[in-house]
Amino acid sequence: MTFRGTDIPAEPGQSVGAALVAAGIVDWRTTRKEGRPRGLFCGIGVCFDCLITVDGTRAERACLIPAADGMRLGDALETGDALGTGDALGASDDGRDRATHHAEEDGDAAHP
Ligand code: FES
C-alpha cells in the first residue's frame, strides 16, 4: 500500500489502520475546528476518528478496512471539512460521537 506516496507494508489480516500504526503513522487526518490530529481510537468502527481516503473513496474507517496490495491511502486532504464528516455520519463536526466530543471539550478524553 502507499500512504501519501510512502510505501506501507501490511501483514495478512491487518486493517489499514493497524498497518499505518505499525509503520509509525499514528494520525492521518485533522479535526475541522481545531486541526487536532486523529488516527485510531476505538479500533472497532465506533468513534470515526480513523476516517481516511482509500483508493479515492473518502471517509472510510481505517480500522475496518482490510489492508490489500496496491491500496492508495490518504490521497485527499484529510480534514473534517474535506471528509464531509458531521451530520451525514451521525457524528459531531470533527467526526466523533457527541458524548466523546463533549468529554474532549471538558478535558476528559482518553487522548488529547
Ligand atoms: S478507530 Fe474508531 S472507528 Fe476506527
From TrEMBL:
<feature type="compositionally biased region" description="Basic and acidic residues">
    <location>
        <begin position="93"/>
        <end position="112"/>
    </location>
</feature>
<dbReference type="Pfam" id="PF13510">
    <property type="entry name" value="Fer2_4"/>
</dbReference>
<protein>
    <submittedName>
        <fullName>(2Fe-2S)-binding protein</fullName>
    </submittedName>
</protein>
<dbReference type="InterPro" id="IPR036010">
    <property type="entry name" value="2Fe-2S_ferredoxin-like_sf"/>
</dbReference>
<dbReference type="InterPro" id="IPR042204">
    <property type="entry name" value="2Fe-2S-bd_N"/>
</dbReference>
<keyword id="KW-0560">Oxidoreductase</keyword>
<feature type="region of interest" description="Disordered">
    <location>
        <begin position="84"/>
        <end position="112"/>
    </location>
</feature>
